[in-house]
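We modelled the chain as a single entity of 372 amino acids. Its sequence is:
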Amino acid sequence: MTQYNNETQTQKYEFISGQHGGYYRHDFIDHAYLYNLYFPPEAVFTRFKDQIHDIVLNYPVAQDALAGLIGSLVHHPPERIVVGNGAAELIKIVSSHIARKLIVPVPSFNEYANAAPTGRAVEYALEFPSFHLDVNKFAAEAIRVEADVAVVVTPNNPTSMVVPKSDLVRLAQKLANHDCMLIVDESFIDFVHDPEQATLENEIEHCPNIAIFKSMSKAYGICGLRIGYMLTANSVFAEAVRNGVHIWNINGFAEEFLRLLPDYRQEFIDSCKQVRKDRDKMYENLSVVKGLTVYKPDANFVFCRLPDHAHSAPEVTQRLFIEHNMYIKHCQGKTLPDSDRYIRIASRTQTENRKLVAALVDIIDSKKAEIS
């Protein structure tokens, strides 16, 4: 095992754990952020270089043209689409300015609740310990608290579990009679085994109270370009969100990427297949770690509960970084019972995943040795 200077690594860990990006500058293996390692192909970067003067020197296009570019990818008319500077921009608009009362199952992506003003977000606990969403109970609670926006992330973050399409359609129908929009965040949907069957993109015409949110950073591996979009057949809701974005909210590099993307559709499909293959192998390897509870993943990361005899999740995360130069996410601070026992591991290449599993076993077993 490579030996790292503990004092330096400890200082680096304390710095990194307070950051929200820029990890590539600090020379460690990132099993924390969730993106596709196999896309975009190098040809996309070559085409960026060929166009760099025009991209930098000129204003990008505005919302109507951007919506058309996304529309050509998802086969929907541009009036159904709002393009954001990452999905985070759209989440902020809905949670902060549109929703009067928002409800979201937890644990989940924190930003929906965090972006809402105090008292306007309700957290609904997922079934424990399965973390499955009972849509009947969730709908009943949304109606009880008079929510006008309900959010479901599928596959969910951090649990990596998909919610069946039929359940989501049923949920939307239950909420429709109570003037409640259902936001379905499909940022990780391309990593499920049959994305075309899992997505609600073809259901929105029949369910006008559904809005699909998608961060393109995850599936397309373009975190630095900041592109997200909303898709809905609800013209009133679409216009309300559209009114919240400013005229040039997407930069020229992001625009150029959207123009290039149709030329690389097969490469994208192949990249997602490789991500699934790597993730499934990591799940298989983690599943044989004694005492570790491993939830079957649908996204490009794996959610685990540490054995009772192991260090806490924050301690394991810190030791992985200090001793092995690997960074994962612990779930302390998430809304779930025993949150300091859970970790989330992003899948990378099979070689890197094997090293991560071996390092995790080393740390878990070292605690067992301390006890005995």
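As a brief sanity check on the tokenised model: The chain is about 45% helix and 15% strand. The longest strand covers residues 210-215.
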